[in-house]
Amino acid sequence: MKKLFIVLFVFSSFNIYAQDKPAYILYNSKGEKQSYSQLLESALINDIILFGELHNNAIAHWLQLQLTKDVYNKVKERLILGAEMLEADNQIVINEYLGKLITYKTFKAEARLWNNFETDYKPLLDVAYENNLKFIATNIPRRYAGIVNNSGFEGLEKLNDEAKKWIAPLPIKYDANLPGYKKMLEMSAMGNMPGKSNNDNLPKAQAVKDATMAHFILKNWIKTNIFIHYHGAFHSDNFDGIYWYLKQAQKDIKILTISTVEQEDIHSLKEENINKADFIICVPEDMTKTY
After folding, report:
1. Cα angle for residues 79, 81, 87 (degrees, 5° grid)
2. Where residue 10 falls among pLDDT bands split at 50, 70, 90?
3. Beta strand pairing status for 25-28 and 279-284?
4. Segments making up each domain of the chain, as ranges
5. Measuring CA to CA, which residue among 52, 28, 61 is closest to residue 42?
6. Residues 14, 183: contact at Cβ < 8 Å?
7. Tens of pLDDT along 221-252?
8. Torsion on CA atoms 141, 116, 98, 65, rounded to nearest 10
9. Is 128 in a helix, a strand, or coil?
10. β-strands 279-284, 255-263: how paired?
11. In the chain, N or C terminus with fewer CB closer than 10 Å?
12. Which of 172, 149, 147, 150 is nearest to 159 (CA)?
């Protein structure tokens, strides 16, 4: 009987250990473990939710969808959605699709969608489609970000007024000392970024994206509503980027930031990932990628 107890105990212990393979662990900014219900509660008391993802991370995309559905179930038509993955000059196409005026096939052909849109972002758009919600294209058209990358902010002044409607109002406020922009410039100087090295305009091209996304978030948000915005985590990590531009425009707006990180061991948050956001989704490095 004693031997049987020992065998059962060993088997039970092994079974518990073997099952201790969470797909993610949520942390707060201090590196303390949090529950999903705590994340949802926080989302519901904020005006803007900046959901930072890793673009190919399946867990981040799944949690975006779950949080969106759960917030919708609480606030219904007071929810507004928006995303980096859609460029502002495509808003009319999005509105026509959401208004059932054009088919998804037509929308897909017209909207310059990312290659992973079908798997990773269409489910979010479907929430808007099925529940008559707004879905805002917030990003600057990439051709205009390209102008900044080549010619600085000054290059935008050559655009006509029609083109400038799809960009944050000029001149673009810019703080080169924000951590994300400093890091980008350092990486560019070391030749670790795409394109030419020592490109002082590279962080400016990032900033014009952040400024434009913040502009269209605020343009479409109204008090009593909640706006969930989806974007790469680097656009709001460390409370700069989009967050900084939102606060520059409206200091009293309540913003919740979410980041996604990958670690080999997710059972404690690495020092480098602490204080990246209000909530940090920590995912195993070997998690299945969406592309």
Report:
1. 155
2. very low
3. antiparallel
4. 22-284
5. 28
6. no
7. 999 999 999 999 999 999 999 999 999 999 99
8. -120
9. helix
10. parallel
11. N
12. 147
